[in-house]
């Protein structure tokens, strides 16, 4: 088993500061890097700080390409709850990235299977992801890879777990509006990235944190596979760690 580097921080704010600095250093070292991105509540503060830094210090994303982990099936990119919309609003619109180099699976495509294959091929064509940012679900999901997903899975279509729909209902008018399916990078796609930065914050992630660190590596807890990745950094706050 590989050693996972764990950076302990006090709270969400410090996690966001550390994570953004981590990303800024990587972008400066490799201005043409391929960045894997996540949505959800966890990285919001990180994106905010990246924008502040871009404004204040001029860190450039001109040569950077990005691939997002996932998108809801059935939502077009201009739907307010789509992950494309989330990324544009919370990050891309505020930095100097070329939008055509920002990839999010297309949720409203007529052929979602073909979209999965094309997305996987696209990642390979740019040489793979250099640094993948991840959050984690309370049930150990990464991307939308729910418990039981094969560790060998490439980008694929998933049925969302009820717990995931409930957790994400806060962004929709009600739970019935949360789509039932999503396109997600698979576990194998995520594991191909050269480096991974996992962010964990809050008491509601404590059980997931504990299982990630102490539990078995098994498909019923998808994030556990990260312990087999050669280059993972976790930034976790005290509430998640349980201190
Ligand atoms: C988001 C994603 C998910 C989230 C996870 C945690 O693109 O792939 O795996 O990272 O559901 O979500 P939050 O951060 O909202 O707790």
Automatic annotation (TrEMBL):
Belongs to the glucosamine/galactosamine-6-phosphate isomerase family. NagB subfamily. Residues 13-227 form the Glucosamine/galactosamine-6-phosphate isomerase domain. Keywords: Carbohydrate metabolism, Hydrolase. One of its GO terms (cellular component) is cytoplasm. It comes from the Bacteria. It is an enzyme of class 3 (hydrolase). InterPro entries: Glc/Gal-6P_isomerase, Glucosamine6P_isomerase, Glucosamine6P_isomerase_CS, NagB/RpiA_transferase-like. This is Glucosamine-6-phosphate deaminase. It comes from Bacillus mesophilum. It catalyses: alpha-D-glucosamine 6-phosphate + H2O = beta-D-fructose 6-phosphate + NH4(+). Pathway: Amino-sugar metabolism; N-acetylneuraminate degradation; D-fructose 6-phosphate from N-acetylneuraminate: step 5/5. One of its GO terms (biological process) is carbohydrate metabolic process. Its EC number is 3.5.99.6. The active site is at 70 (proton acceptor), 139 (for ring-opening step), 141 (proton acceptor), 146 (for ring-opening step). The lineage of its organism: Bacteria, Bacillati, Bacillota, Bacilli, Bacillales. One of its GO terms (molecular function) is glucosamine-6-phosphate deaminase activity. The gene is nagB. Catalyzes the reversible isomerization-deamination of glucosamine 6-phosphate (GlcN6P) to form fructose 6-phosphate (Fru6P) and ammonium ion.
């Amino acid at each position: 088993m590989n050693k996972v580097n764990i950076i302990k921080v006090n709270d969400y704010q410090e996690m966001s500061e550390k994570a953004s600095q981590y990303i800024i250093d990587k972008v400066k070292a490799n201005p043409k890097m391929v960045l894997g991105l996540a949505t959800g509540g966890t990285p919001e503060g990180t994106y905010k700080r990246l924008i502040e830094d871009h404004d204040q210090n001029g860190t450039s994303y001109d040569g950077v390409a990005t691939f997002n982990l996932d998108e809801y099936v059935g939502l077009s990119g201009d739907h307010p709850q789509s992950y494309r919309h989330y990324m544009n609003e919370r990050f891309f619109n505020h930095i100097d990235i070329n939008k055509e180099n920002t990839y999010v699976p297309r949720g409203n495509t007529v052929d979602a299977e073909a979209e999965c294959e094309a997305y996987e091929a696209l990642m390979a064509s740019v040489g793979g992801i250099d640094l993948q940012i991840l959050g984690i679900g309370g049930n150990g999901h990464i991307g939308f890879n729910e418990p039981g997903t094969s560790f060998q899975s490439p980008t694929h279509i998933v049925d969302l777990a009820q717990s995931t729909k409930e957790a994400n209902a806060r962004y929709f008018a009600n739970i019935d509006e949360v789509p039932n399916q999503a396109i997600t990078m698979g576990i194998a796609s995520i594991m191909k990235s050269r480096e991974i930065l996992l962010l964990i914050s809050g008491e509601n992630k404590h059980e997931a944190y504990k299982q990630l660190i102490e539990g078995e590596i098994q498909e019923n807890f998808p994030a556990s596979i990260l312990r087999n990745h050669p280059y993972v950094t976790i930034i976790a706050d005290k509430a998640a760690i349980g201190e």
